[in-house]
User: What shape does this take?
Amino acid sequence: YTCAAGSNLVGTSTTTCTAGTLAWVPPTGPQCVPDCPTFPPANANSNIATTPTAPFTTGNTVVYSCNTGFTPLGSLTLTCQNTGVWSPTTAPTCRKVCSAPPGLSSGTGQFAPVKTEYEVNEEVTYSCTGVLNVRGVNKNKCKADGTWEYTTGPSCEAVCYAAPTITNGDYTPKNTYTNALGSVTYTCNAGSVPTTPQTVTCQSATLTWSPTPSCRKSCAAPPAVTNAGTGSASTWAEGDVITYACAPTTSYKIVAATSGNNAPHQNECLSTGLWKYTTPADLPTCVAICSTAPTTTTGTTTITPAAGPYDLNTNAVYTCTSPSPSNPLGDTTLTCTGPNTWTPATAPTCVSACINVPQIAANGNQITGTQWTGGQTVTYSCTSAAYALTTPTINTCTASTLTWTSATAPSCLQKCTTALPSAPSNGNNVLDTTKNPVPGENVEGTRYTYTCAATYALAIGSSTENTCTGGAWPNAAPSCVPACTNPPAGTVGSPTPSPNNALNPQGTSVTYTCGSGTTLVGTATITCQATRAWLPATAPECITDCTAPPSIPSNGAANTPAAGPYTIGLSITYACAANFRLVGSTTNTCQRVGTATAGTWSAAAPTCAPSDKDLDIVMILDGNDPLDGCSSKTPAVTPPILPGGSLTGSAFPNFFLQQSLAAAIESGWGTVAQANTRIGYHMHAGVCTSATNQNQLPIKQLSSTASTLTLFTSLAYPCATPNNPIKAIQCAETYHFIANHGDRPTISNVVILVMHNTQSYTAAERATFLTEITAIRASLKGTLMIVSILPSVDSNYAANEAYIRMLLGCPAAGVCLNFLGSAATSSTVLSKLRLAAATLP
Assistant: This one.
């Protein structure tokens, strides 16, 4: 085998076919693998020691070598692989190294690590033996040029390193090393003070510094508390605590801060240079006290409280105990008004005498002296003859108790200088013995009362008494007038009179009231007359209020007022819930019937029925002859026929009946108003042949707000020739069911046709009408409903109903909603109209 250029053969180049086995030996052929490219050139500080010749085949090697002083990084030999690449793929790198570092310059110690060669940037660290410290740099580094950063090593000596630094201070001298037993001195910055010691020493045994001081923030003098001290210190620093103490303690006591922040009465200097408590609320106070109370110099006393100290503004109360009996001279109550200061300043003395003689308040003599022995007396008198003396006139000091026989002095009262007004006619004035200060004299406070003879009483507004005041009688004599006895008692419900006196002077008014749950009926106030009779002569009555009013069974709103009391004469108003209408009276009144003792309601409760549907209704009234024989009556009554004239229930009963039916529908149907149901009226009279004729027939447009009764006051009933009712329906629809005349497109339209006796038409006419109305009934603008003018008891009513059912498309029997019945029974018409309306859209 041979390989192409650029590759070399790996394996046996020859294979042989063996005769016995007919197999190749070796059984597989060699491989042709690519040659390696030119080997990498040598890097800096290196050379190629052994170089193969090209081509470079598998297994060839290249050997590199480093220059002197350099060490290889990686393999120095590259080998050509059978893949055609060198391994390793790059030439080795030769780097510089350091030999052993310099040793210690003096002293004993070592460096680490210890090696024969050191890589670039590798460091060694020096240390000393024993307590010695390294002086100089304790580290050395191998540089890129193979030399050490420091050419000489440090020394091991008996020195301390630089002294420690402190907060808010510094030291001198500033040396990197200090020999054993050397020292430095610390000082603090402004605003700080040092702790001791301020000088520290390099200790020879350990070559470390002795303990250093610290600099604490200083505080100014602490906040002052009046009459309190803080100790003997003159400077204060961070952490110092002072305690306030009042001085002297016999005159002041300390009271804790009102804020409660400083209960122990202390303060602390903070690291900020400020005191912890500075506001008055956070500081204690020194309040004045009195340590002891003054002692009594004559006699003995007990003091309450018995012992001090006494707080400011508190009292010490003295009581004499000897001699017995005795009285205190001087104030018995002393008040602590300042530090050890009492007001009054001296205690009372105890004497065996009466003291404090009662004195006349005014216009009398004043007794002089301070002490009176037992049995000694004093005499009172007035200073002017215009005054009279009350009792007692003499006061005696009682020996056994040393008290005055009268604890109060008499009074000097001014005499009345005017005459007492005379007694009234039919009466007397009587001295009030309980108001007679000086018997036999009319003086200040002497009182006379006035009385009247039987059947008389003091006039209203008269004074009932006269009292001497300021030396005169203030009131004129009263009058005695005829009097009524007690006011009459009520006979029903016990009304209460006020006032209710046995005698009541002429003109007295008495007002009666009734208790809860009753109403006063009659005159509430009566008056006493000069004849001694009451007017009115009888009392009113108290009639029991009505019970709760009858309620609407269902769908009703609250009564107004909803709650009692329901007094006689009170009316309540009923209302229905939304979408319901009220049937019956809207009001009910609590009333008294005859002589009943309790009120009753005037009516039963109404009911609430579903609200009527809003409709646009056109009602066609019949005005054709021979209805009521109008043509035969016109010679006597010239048309138009007016209500109040000949249009009465007796003269024109069917015309009048239609008017009544129209009014009943308008008043009985829910709400007839422009916003709800609208009603228009039209006459079925003659033929609707033209626009002119059409416009003459309407009575009321849907848009009109006039009432039915107002309209019929001036309504003319034309007495026309009977004609086709179908034409009347078409005429009414054409006129009324347009927007200009009030028709509303969203509201259902209804046409109510009032028909007279259909039997008055011929059979042929009835057949024609039926055919025509059947043809147009579905196209009418409004739902057609018919009312018969005949009463239900009329012999032709059944035949009329049968024909009307055919006109309306109803079955001969059963329900026919749009046939509303007889005009004679308006309530039935309304009921059937509601049933029919309920089916409309």
The first helix runs from residue 630 to 633. The chain has eight helices and 65 strands. The radius of gyration is 69 Å. Residues 106 and 155 are 5 Å apart (CA to CA).
